[in-house]
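Forum: Protein Structure Q&A
Topic: Joint prediction for protein chains with partners

I've read a bunch of threads here and the consensus seems to be that you should model interacting components together rather than docking separate models afterwards. I'd like to see that in practice. Below is the full input, 564 residues plus whatever partners are listed. Could one of the regulars post the assembled result?
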Amino acid sequence: MDRFFWLVFEFFCLVDSKNLATPPRGSIAGARQHLSEAAKNLAPKYAPYLYAQAQNKYDSAMWHWNTENKKLFFNRDYAIVETYAVLSIKFAKEAIAKANKNKLSTKQQLEISIEDLKLQIDRFGKQYGHFPFDAESTRALTHCKLLLNEGISAYEKNNLHLAIEKTGASLGIINDLNIRYKTKLTEYFNGYLDWKNNVDGTIALSKRQQGHAVIVDKYARECLLFKNGALIKKFNIELGQNWIGDKNYQGDKSTPEGQYKVVSKKQHGQTKYHKALLLDYPNLEDKIRFDLNKKNGAIHAKAKIGGLIEIHGHGGKGHHWTEGCVALTNQDMDYLFATLPLGTKVTIVGSVKPLFQIINEANE
Amino acid sequence: MKKAVLKSFVAIAISGLLLAGCAKAPQAEIDAANAAVEEAGAAGADLYVYDSYVALKDSLSAAMEKIEAQKSKLFKNYSGVAEHLTGVTQFAQEVKLKAETRKEEIKAEIQVGLTEVKALQETNNKLVTEAPKGKEGAAAIEAIKGELAAIDSSVAQAAVMFESSELVPALDKVKAAKEKSTAINAELNDVIAKTKGKKK
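Posted by a regular:
Agreed with the consensus. Here's the joint model:
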């Protein structure tokens, strides 16, 4: 009996001498709590690598804990469980810090991007708003604005990745439109030297004759009145819807470019546009160009050259709407009508200013 | 006699020790909790009720820790853990329901939005025909038609996203389209009113 009790006693001493290992419950609970905190701080999105490491270490801690628990209790060793739990806490803390940093910098970057995009769209509107847009460009610009609004909506809901996606797509469209219209503008301004010569010649003639002359600046949408070679008045104007480029045929809604003169004055009642100054379009140059275009097949064989290009009233609508005429407000038209005699030179050009000056002024 | 009683007592004590060490983890409750959490995830809880889903996963992990803690002991007692797991299962079911509800709310919001935008677009297309004709308004009308076409395209994309359950981006798209369509509607009504005013 004594021997039996001694055996039992030795058994418990042996068990006790092994200092039964206790699992690191505190560290594991700490790892879980830090992981949860990291998830709440959106670390899976903003610090995915660190978060994955933290999760991986926690899973390893649990796995080793489970493995050790399968062993006889006096053979267990939880040191590796503790190691993994501590590593998980380390990575989770780093993930939280990185996620917060990335979120803040992403948010700040997005704020800047959104403001920049609004500015770009606004600038595009100011620079090209009066350009004759084709249907595809109109759709693209609307789509660009819709995407910006979607991006702003996502940003306000803190869905930063979606906001980046939408604003990025919007930026892509406005960049494409800018390239497209800058190219059109550059091509159009290839005619600048001719325009400058015509403008200089018109001003010189006004000075020589000590009389009036009119210069129509299509790009600036201005009608400039000169007397004795000096600018005395400016008027806002509206042109044909397809105002870029020269007039090629009747119905193309383009305002012609060239040197003309006033050949007729229509009083109120003689025109449906309040008052009108009829120009001698087509001039010889227009006719030569028209015939050449027809010969080359650039325009239809049955196309007509058109006529009845006037400076008239009913302007002030805020957009280009005429069939090719130059429209002023009735008040401005009254002044011009009263001032200009028959035979007054009217020079219509694409722009009085060179393109680089226009761009510099737009960027100020 | 005394020794025999003592021996029996020790034998019972040792048996008791061994038996206590054999208590089993509540596997049925573990399986039920895991399955419920998975269902909540499949219902889109991580997307629609993210915070609740994080809390749910934390709760499940805490329960698994408790199980391992009991396994570490000589005298295991899983009754508290079983209760915790049952709680996790219930919580998961609540989170799943919340996610499904939120998903349906967003779906309803999108459907209402789509209907409203389509109605607005129909009205706008009709108003465009009433807008002042002639060369004065032609360019503006063409521009508006282009914008309406872009909105139609955006709405169509939103509908596709809705069908493929990309609900959050679909909702943003519908809202942006509705805002733009409403602005065009106001613009057209304004222009038509001014024209009618002038005719008087």
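The two ends of chain B are 126 Å apart (CA to CA).
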